[in-house]
Amino acid sequence: MQDAKEIWNIALKTLEKEVTAVSFDLWIKSLEPIDLKNNVLYLSTTSETAKNRVLKLHEQSIRYAIKSANEDIVDFKILDPDETTKYKSSEQESKVVSSSPICKFNEKFTFDNFVVGNSNKYVYAAARGVAENPVTKINPLYIYGGVGLGKTHLLHAIGNYLSKTRPDLKVMYVTCNKFTNDYIDCMANKDKIGAIASFRNKYTNVDVLMVDDIQFISKKTSTQEEFFNVFNELYQNNKQIIIASDRAPKEIETLEDRLRSRFSMGLIQDIQFPDYETRFAILQKKAQQEHYNIDEDVIDYIATNSNSNIREMEGVLCKVVFYANLSGKTHATMDDVAEALKDQVISEKKSITSDKIIVAVCKYFNISKDDLIGKKKNKEIVEPRQIAMYLICDMMDLPLTSIGDIFGGRDHTTVIHAREKILNAIKDSNRMRVTIDDIKNTIEHAQ
Ligand code: ADP
Ligand code: MG
Known about the structure:
Layout: H1 4-18, H2 21-26, E1 32-37, E2 40-44, H3 48-69, E3 75-79, H4 81-97, H5 121-132, E4 141-144, H6 151-165, E5 171-175, H7 176-188, H8 192-204, E6 208-212, H9 221-236, E7 240-245, H10 257-263, E8 267-270, H11 276-289, H12 296-305, H13 310-326, H14 334-350, H15 354-365, H16 369-373, H17 379-395, H18 400-406, H19 412-428, H20 430-445
Parallel strand pairs: 2-3, 4-7, 4-8, 5-6, 6-7
Antiparallel strand pairs: 1-2
Helix pairs in contact: 1-3, 3-13, 5-6, 7-8, 11-12, 11-13, 13-14, 15-17, 15-20, 17-19, 18-19, 19-20
The structure holds adenosine-5'-diphosphate and magnesium ion (MG).
């Protein structure tokens, strides 16, 4: 993850364009990034007055600019000089005493703030069950589902709940990347044996260990081995383990079988994309939480038109409010939606071409382009062809007839059929969703 400075520098570029030059020089430039902790960016300013002015005039703009710089940032705080001094000294203290792996959790990610619907009621119940009865009920708990569907939110909710109800427990949250980097650091240490012992101690001397985004452990053989050891030690000592991933254990390529079977010992629970009502309720809750003043039409529009992830939906909400504020309004309406989404649609879609999509699909399935757009009817070709059609519909703004043309002059009804087939498959099988996500990823990164 980028550090506070890097994120702030990117945010400044957005702010420079969005606020007046005077405001930028006077208020925005006075802010200094001092820390990034638990996905909250801390900025210091020169006086209490400056803090109040900045918040009054530019809170939404700053929030938007930071979100655009890094969508994982959940909040920012501006500290006046007194608060900055206090913050820095308490950080110093906690660095000195904190060999204990107690984590602070994002206070916005609680069970209360989690909207429950059909898509996530089981995973919610499982997370809640573990939080109320760690170890005794479900161990390990393995949560999986697509990007931005609330996995990290639930892990933090468990953490928040336990810090309140069971302050005696040591609860640790770690991303797979952090775990891996820690391990790599200790392998590089001169005193390797000592370093590994202290690494193991750090991760096993807890009552609850949560590891987020475990899919990134694939391909890292020695980290897998170490995680296996940590897992066993915790499990044997009756400690709770909670894992989140974007895919089921059986879909993580190159995951060692013994780890896969460990993950399957408890409960594996998936989280799905929420239905319209739940999406609406989530947006409403977010608007309340952030004190956004927003028309129901707008919430309806965003809930209706989003089809991939909640984080993205929240990004749109934040952008719409930002545009309303830019034009001096305290209330966001459908006019702001049009304004806010104008650039987004164009800039996202213009660099993706049908050719890029076709190349990515061919590469993924290891088939030739001639076969993909040709006439062959065997299953090994038909499904990739339908996936390519689906992706072109989803990622580009093309008329159905033009898509038919790309595939050797097929009728537009064939394209509709392909799209529906893949959409249903995504709903029914996690495997299809993962395939689509993987291909989309390669297309987006090929830009
Ligand atoms: P993931 O870890 O699955 O990629 P996150 O947990 O980071 O996703 O969630 C993305 C955003 O969506 C967060 O801001 C989170 O609060 C929000 N979110 C997801 N699901 C819900 C829900 N059911 N209710 C409220 N907010 C949600
Ligand atoms: Mg996450």
